[in-house]
Amino acid sequence: MRRHRIALVMIAVVSLLGGCAQSTSGHVGSASISHTEPPLPAGATPAPTDRPTPAPAPEGDCGDPTASLRPFPDAGTPPPMPTVDAIRARGRLIVGLDTGSNLMSFRDPATGTIQGFDVDMAREIARDLFGDPDRLEYRILTSANREKALQESLVDIVAKTMTITCERREKVAFSTQYFEAHQRVLVVKGSRIRGPADLGGKRVCAARGTTSLERLQQVTPTADILTVPMWSDCLVVLQQGQVDAVSSDDTILAGLVSQDPYLEIVGDSMGAEPYGIGITRSNEDLVRFVNGTLERIRLDGSWTRSYNQWLSMLGPSPAPPSAVYQD
Fold it and tell me: Which of 266, 294, 322 is the last residue of a domain?
């Protein structure tokens, strides 16, 4: 009887193990391995394909768009400066920029400070306002909300690779030009894309609210464009293979290359991008004050020192852009 019971137990155990093995084997055999594509950055959306290609802005509809107000004269009785006085009374200059544009404005991971060529422009303005370049408060903006931030007086100035155009001058004021960038194309090394002519039918990343996006739609209307809030998002989707190229100003693309040595800038310029400091349109005294700072740094070497520190990978330092005044 005892041997009989042991035999029954052994049979049950073997049956149980066999059933488990069969179940497990069946599970493995029926399982399928799938690979999920990395998610797109927050806010990334395909540009509409059913919209008409934007026509180039008419030339000359505002004269020279880079012409600005002349600085205050150094001698004589200072004119009223209500905006400048209010900023000085506040004790800090509020600057709109982006902390994801390496070389132009970015947060140094080692120190936590915000640095770059555009930041240097803002620091020089603060130096002339307060005698202290650190009297700054930063507000982070996407390219698409720069104009709104100025119109609603959320910032005093925008120092964020902002191209001066006639269309934008209807909404905000600009300083004189402080840099001339050129729109080009960024790809992974070894790509068959060698310039703008190769972008047709390719997926290209561009930031919303930029002249780069508008020109890309004009030059390569058959490109499949992915729009994102920040240029740093374009780096992510290019590295993940979700786009074939990025098109933007060479200053911005150089910043992306500085973060990834497997990328390269290719092709000729698609067009010039004259940068200006954005200012609320009604604040003419601040426009003149900022232009005075820009005139100083053209002459005292500050502009060249900043270029050599941040943008030398674009080539030897050019002369700073000459100021054009409308009065």
Answer: 266
Q: In this structure, what token pair is assigned to residue 85? A: 């006085």
Burial category of 95 from C-beta neighbours within 10 Å (exposed 0-12, middle 13-18, buried 19 and up): buried
User: CA-to-CA distance for 154 and 139, rounded, in angstroms?
Assistant: 9
Other residues' Cβ atoms within 10 Å of the Cβ of residue 80: 8
The 10 Å CB-count burial string (b at 16+, else e) for 43-65 is: ebeebeeeeeeeeeeeeeebeeb
In the chain, how many domains are there?
2
Looking at the structure, tell me whether residues 293 and 165 fall in a common domain: yes
Helices H / strands E in the chain, number of each: 10, 13
192: alpha, beta or left? (left if phi > 0; alpha if psi -120 to 50): alpha
The answer on 251 and 161 residing in a single domain is no
Q: Tell me, what CATH number does 289's domain have?
A: 3.40.190.10
Please say whether the dihedral angle defined by the alpha carbons of residues 300, 158, 274 and 270, taken in this order, is positive or negative. positive
On whether both 92 and 111 belong to a single domain, the answer is: yes
Structure tokens at 314: 């674009």
Is 5 a member of any domain? no
Residue 172 domain-assigned (yes or no): yes
> Phi then psi for 95, rounded to 5 degrees?
-120, 130
In a structure prediction context, what are the per-residue pLDDT tens digits for the chain, which is 327 residues long? 444 444 444 444 444 444 444 433 333 333 333 434 678 888 788 887 554 444 554 545 789 999 999 999 887 788 999 999 999 999 999 999 999 899 999 999 999 999 999 999 999 999 999 999 999 999 999 999 999 999 999 999 999 999 999 999 999 999 999 999 999 999 999 999 999 999 999 999 999 999 999 999 999 999 999 999 999 999 999 999 999 999 999 999 999 999 999 999 999 999 999 999 999 999 999 999 999 999 999 999 999 999 999 999 999 999 999 999 999
Structural domain harbouring 127: 82-180+273-314
Query: Residue 225: inside a domain, yes or no?
Result: yes
Rounded to two decimals, the pTM is: 0.83
Same domain, 103 and 91: yes
